[in-house]
Amino acid sequence: MNRADLSKQPEQVSAMFDDVSTKYDRMNAVLSVGNDALWRIATTRAVGPAAGERILDLAAGTGTSSAALARNGAHVVAADFSPGMIAVGRDKYADRSDIQFVEADATDLPFADEEFDATTISFGLRNVVRPKDALAEMLRVTKPGGRIVICEFSTPTFGPMRAAYNLYLERVMPLVAGVASSNAEAYTYLNDSIRAWPSQPELAAWLREAGYEHVAYRNLTGGIVALHRGLKPA
Fold this sequence. Notes:
Layout (H helix, E strand, L loop, with lengths): L9 H11 L3 H8 L3 H13 L6 E5 L5 H7 L4 E6 L2 H10 L6 E5 L12 E7 L8 H11 E12 L5 H22 L3 H13 L3 H11 L2 E8 L4 E7 L3
Parallel strand pairs: 1-2, 1-4, 2-3, 4-5
Antiparallel strand pairs: 5-7, 6-7
Helix pairs in contact: 7-8
């Protein structure tokens, strides 16, 4: 299976990410024109990891975001449902005792209630077959008063930028992926999943529906990406 369709069958999506795992970080940098590093900095600041905290980084991929979260002394559990991604991450950060890699289904997390000070997911929620169930699970494993941060592709708010972005997704991204990726079809799926994803207000409504308080979001890069935040009721 090289490409998943938008029915998002877990086995298909997992196999697709397995297939691109060894070049995933490089492709992220290429396709985002380097903005992935800026988005990761913004996400880490929004999470605000502190020494001694336990943080769940869901859909962590190869652990690049987890390493950023652990830099201030937090212990990070890097969870992903792709065995290939987990294998690359474990190899890459074999010397890091502050990052623990775990294979996990976002809709049925293998963690106890109220285990984490914060939970976060970057560019992964839209790949979950039942994203609302994933939000409920993230709430369950978060301590009272703990925070959630979601970084996800979204809807540009400025008309001309939205048109340019859609053109990039439709024409430029497939060409670049075809040249630089070992599996161009996987990036066609990612393209389609971005287009099908809800807008910023709708995702914020999902967070409130799941039970989070003080829900807010801010746009990054003109709304190409949005950073959503919330707190579990104390």
